[in-house]
Design goal:
Strand order of the largest sheet: 1-2-7-8-9-10-11-12
Low-confidence stretches: none
Largest sheet: 8 strands, parallel, barrel
Strand content: 5-15%
Mean pLDDT: 96
Order of helices and strands: EHEEEHEEHEHHEHHHEEHEHHEHHH
Bound molecules: acetamide
Radius of gyration: 21 Å
């Protein structure tokens, strides 16, 4: 006891504080690169230390399915494994991409998921699973081709980008999705469930006789409306199971389902349309809150692109201009996204996340809309004490005056 150094005496006081927004989130993509259980817990610790309260867990995508589903074991037996991964940046891969020759795999058992969700709950963090659909489903279709639109053989993808694979919007597929929801609802007590909905290419739907016939039967003219139909069917499954649907802003195209919550990522427009339509929205624009983007113009490790330095994150205002007071009340909050195409390790996840997450934390907590970045940086230098204590691999150059 005599050697305890970091002990401070502070006078007794009562602190009254509450956050401006109820949704203060961080997303982690574990499909592109699998992240071990211990790190997922540590990431939750870092979220909790920033008094954020939502962990959006991107569990499935073209490059890997990462959650055990007991009724459909091939999702992980086949879908959680890729033979190798693209080397370098997809932008420069051209027609002759190079691969690393290293198999990549991993998934979370349902016991591990329960353990992580409990860990998060003890830290007041709500875990929201994302099962991306109807696009970003190559890993699913590699495991269960019968739910894909095309009859061509599909492998778990080893290259980044937007792929052609898309689920077939038939009753068998919705039954499959319902089975997954039934398992997931036992694992995730959250009232929210994210269904993706982003970047679904409709070419396979356009080219499929079966789908065109289905559209005619349903009296649906546009493929975008078929995606709305798809999301509507899934929303019904979710609401029957007590869950609220969140989707990326593409779910607006072709008609927005009245109960859906829109996660606005292609700028703020999706959030604005949703709030004006009476829907709730979460702001996660790639202009300010994509933490897989570059943090400086030079000297940074490879990233997907973009430019989201700390001051830009700190300057973000989650309620878009032009909303009236009722519409503004539908903005639930904001979220930072960490996609991991170019982030292979937990250390790099931390490097990309912090201190941008620290800036976002203040954005979603503080009522102050005029923010002084240099003043924030001074306080950030004190916060460093806590980051160092937890050995967070934050971006050190952001903390030098
Ligand atoms: C996304 O970045 N595709 C949501």
């Amino acid at each position: 006891q005599t050697k305890s150094l970091n002990v401070y005496n502070i006078p007794p006081m009562i602190i009254e504080d509450f956050p401006r927004f109820k949704y203060r989130g961080m997303m982690l993509d574990v499909s592109r690169h699998f992240m071990p259980v211990d790190f997922v817990k540590r990431y939750i610790d870092i979220i909790a230390m920033h008094k954020m309260n939502k962990f959006h867990w991107h569990l499935t995508d073209d490059q890997g399915w990462r959650i055990e589903i007991k009724k459909y074991p091939k999702l992980t037996e086949i879908g959680s494994k890729r033979t190798e991964t693209l080397k370098g940046h997809a932008r420069f891969a051209g027609s002759n991409p190079k691969f690393d020759g290293i198999p990549h795999e991993g998934f979370y058992t349902q016991d591990e998921i329960k353990d992580i969700v409990k860990y998060a709950d003890e830290r007041f963090v709500d875990v929201i699973p994302e099962i991306d659909m109807p696009g970003h489903t190559s890993a699913l279709i590699a495991a269960y081709p019968e739910f894909g639109t095309s009859t061509e053989k599909v492998d778990v993808k080893k290259i980044w980008g937007v792929h052609e694979e898309i689920l077939k919007p038939t009753d068998d597929t919705f039954k499959f999705i319902e089975d997954i929801v039934l398992e997931l609802k036992e694992l995730f007590p959250s009232s929210y469930f994210h269904v993706g909905g982003d970047e679904a290419k409709k070419t396979q739907w356009e080219n499929s006789e079966e789908i065109q016939k289905l559209m005619a039967d349903l009296e649906i003219e546009e493929e975008d409306s078929l995606q709305s139909y798809f999301i509507g069917r899934v929303e019904k499954i979710l609401s029957e199971n007590g869950k609220k649907l969140i989707g990326w802003d593409e779910i607006i195209e072709g008609g927005l389902n009245e109960n859906a919550i829109v996660m606005s990522w292609r700028g703020e427009e999706g959030g604005i349309i949703a709030a004006k339509a009476g829907n709730q929205a979460i702001m996660s624009p790639n202009s300010h809150l994509y933490f897989d983007y570059y943090q400086a113009k030079t000297g940074e490790p490879i990233a997907i692109g973009g430019f989201t330095p700390l001051d830009k994150v700190y300057s973000y205002e989650p309620v878009p201009k032009g909303l009236d007071i009722n519409e503004a009340s539908r903005i639930m909050g904001a979220q930072g996204n960490v996609w991991t195409e170019y982030i292979k390790t937990p250390e790099k996840v931390e490097y990309m996340s912090v201190p941008r997450m620290t800036a976002l934390s203040e954005v979603v907590w503080s009522k102050r809309k005029v923010r002084d970045f240099s003043e924030f940086k001074k306080r950030l230098n004190f916060y460093r004490f806590f980051l160092d204590k937890e050995k967070v691999n934050y971006r050190k150059t952001d903390l030098v005056k």
